[in-house]
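Batch 3, record 17
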Amino acid sequence: MPLTNRTHLSTLTQFLIEERRRFPSASGDFNALILDVALACKAIARAVALGELGGTLGDHAADEGGNINVQGETQKKLDVLSNEVFIRRTEWAGNLAGMASEEMDLPYQIPPQYPRGKYLLVFDPLDGSSNIDVNVSVGSIFSVLRVSKEIEESGRDVCEADFLQSGAQQVAAGYALYGPTTMLVLTVGDGVNGFTLDPNLGEFMLTHPRLRIPEDSHEFAINASNSRFWEAPVKRYVDECLAGRTGPRDKDFNMRWIASMVAEAHRILMRGGVFLYPRDTKDPAKPGRLRLLYEANPVGMLMEQAGGRASTGERPMLGVQPTSLHQRIGLVFGSRNEVERIERYHAEPQRSELCNPLFAERSLFRV
Ligand code: AHG
Ligand code: MN
Ligand code: MN
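Prediction for the assembled complex:
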């Protein structure tokens, strides 16, 4: 598209102002927050793009404050830098009451020199960071929640309990993808819109309005090295995909695994598909790999807003009541009919149960 033909595209700022007209009493705080988040994402995009030239590849040095985060995972230099960028770009404006991040054990308090606001920002500053050193797409994920009137009025410090809101309560969610192009994909609860960073202008331009996920798909994404730990319904679903045209699905499937959830979410928003990082038996201390508050919930809201579906495998993700800040959970999302099929497989009695007399021939529970 020649430069002159791009002038008809809305900028992110224009989009947000036009959205805000739906709420004449809105203060503008929310828009200001999203623009600050967008600026943080632009800064991270530059750091990611410089790669080795920026001196930011590799692990965060242990002598610079330790390199294991609360998840027990080794932090990359860019994990730490991206976390810092998110904080510095958003803490000052008076829109936030507090923040929480994958890279911080405890909630972040807005420093006393700044005013406090009515939103909470929850984020994974760099998702897929094992991919940084190999130059594969990574991203940032964020979720915006509201605080209670009590916090808004008192301006008190936030605590873990303030963040434990279900995904259905999110005000907005989105991600930035640092791929061949940098994109920001956003929902403010009225559909999903995709913006591409114009590097000449330094502006996110609305290039993908009103994204919709196809209801059906023949592409799935799962880390198959975990297959021996999967539960029976997941095994059944994947086995049927692998059986392709010769199996019960009667069609061939394609498989992808990028190991950056944000990149997988983007592919699914663009052309459909299903992603699974299910609960498994690998480590009983970890009920799933991905985190509820800053991975599953924001991606869940985007999926649902684009006509797809997000689930624990058993029930809608956005209905889950969180119990801790860094809680992990099984996550399945993407094309609606595929996710519903996986939920159905979870709801049906397992083969082992079918050996139970309750499910025997002519029994009430026979399927
Ligand atoms: P993070 O880099 O924020 O810790 O998240 C990585 C996540 C997710 O993006 C990806 O889908 C998954 O971990 C990859 O897991 P495997 O290493 O099991 O492939
Ligand atoms: Mn992540
Ligand atoms: Mn991360």
